[in-house]
Amino acid sequence: MLLTGHQLKLAATRLTAQLSRSFAAAAEAQQAATPSPPSPPKRAPNKMGGWQFHSYGDSDELQYCDKLRLPQIRNSDECLVRVRATTVNPIDVAMLRGYGATLLNIMRCKSGDSIEFPLTLGREFVGELVQKGMGVNGSDQLQLGCRVWGVVPISSTAGAHAEYVVVSRSCLAAAPKNLDDKEAASVLYAGLTAWSGLYISGFLGGPCGATTAAGGGANKRVLVMGGSGGVGSLAIQMLSAQGVQVLATCSENAVDMVRCLGADCVVDYTNPAQLEQLAKYAPYDIVLDCAGQGSQHAAELNFDFRQYITFSSPLLANIDKQGICLGALQNVSELLQSNVKAVTQRGGLVKWGYFYPAAHGIEFLQRLVERRKLMPLIDSSFDFAELPKAFERIKQGHLRGKVVVQLKDSITGC
Ligand SMILES: NC(=O)c1ccc[n+]([C@@H]2O[C@H](COP(=O)([O-])OP(=O)(O)OC[C@H]3O[C@@H](n4cnc5c(N)ncnc54)[C@H](OP(=O)(O)O)[C@@H]3O)[C@@H](O)[C@H]2O)c1
């Protein structure tokens, strides 16, 4: 069987990961032979540890409390999960500063959480299923004790930066066995963002790609701007696995890494001469902005495209600044303006892409991981007690993949 360069490099990365896991397993076995340290004092029933904040601001607003009430299953389709690992994303840093509060609070009030604070952040997790709502069928493939991965919708007040989280069954699935906890916690939020940008906003796989886990888009050409970050690095791998021709931009020091992810051509965005090369491959079916460039950037590009999809939409910020009605008008006006410019100058549409917690999106990502076509990059990893440091890492920027937080007393295996 002939392997492409990309497959060889992914295989090498996985071999290294497997070896390091084997060493870790050997070390754990050795530890198991020695007397174990005294177990921590038992916590009162229905209490848990978690990070909350009571007013918007910087990471010093984050407070750890080990006497939080365990989240309750309120709807019959919900499940309670004991979190083993979670992540911090740029959205967590922004939400801590109050980003999106106007619209998100309205959505929270509708779902019964009428008080704004305290809030717990954390959009994704891997953990252990400990309780199922009455409506989650007994014959459901997810059994209690099962290792699951999942996402928390952005409007929830109780995210995954806690020992337990409650989410609806559709936001959960069995975690892929070939990923460890840190890796499994690092796929879904960025992965569902990339997937929904490409397959829902961008309609890359047509109606089937948008409504099922089928993916698609073979032989199309996509430029991923920001291929070194959490969203971009997963977008490149999922596109490459679908037979899409992928071009990517990143800083010089990430070029080799991004090429290994499967990009056919990688360009250093800090080098104007290299950026010029992107015009040679135009027109692009999709330009995917994972680099925070925003809608206005579309008309500044010196090549044509059919669609420019940015994950940096002004939607929530405009509503924060101007309220629901004026903010909504401002959004319509900005989207129209950037489309008029992009259509007249570059012949393509501008769209806004969003994280969307769809069950078929999770299934799409799960299949890719299980076929070993998708592996998250991990930028850095922190203990749960150090969660504010993970926020600081995000604020420094120049991320190379995901910032993971591992809960101290997490268990392995299922
Ligand atoms: N709308 C939504 O629902 C949603 C969901 C998730 C993420 N997002 C947004 O999507 C963007 C990507 O998220 P993420 O989690 O992947 O962020 P990230 O991990 O910080 O990745 C951004 C990457 O882009 C690189 N970069 C910065 N400027 C660049 C440029 N001009 N050209 C090419 N690459 C550049 C950065 O590295 P260097 O600075 O070293 O080059 C970094 O590796 C962020 O703006 C985030 O806020 C939106």
Automatic annotation (TrEMBL):
It comes from the Eukaryota. It is found in: Mitochondrion. One of its GO terms (molecular function) is zinc ion binding. It holds the Pfam family ADH_N. Residues 57-405 form the Enoyl reductase (ER) domain. GO terms for cellular component: mitochondrion. Gene3D superfamilies: Medium-chain alcohol dehydrogenases, catalytic domain, NAD(P)-binding Rossmann-like Domain. The keyword Mitochondrion applies. Keywords: Mitochondrion, Oxidoreductase, Transit peptide. The keyword Mitochondrion applies. Its main location: mitochondrion. Residues 26-50 are annotated as: Disordered. Belongs to the zinc-containing alcohol dehydrogenase family. Quinone oxidoreductase subfamily. This is Enoyl reductase (ER) domain-containing protein.
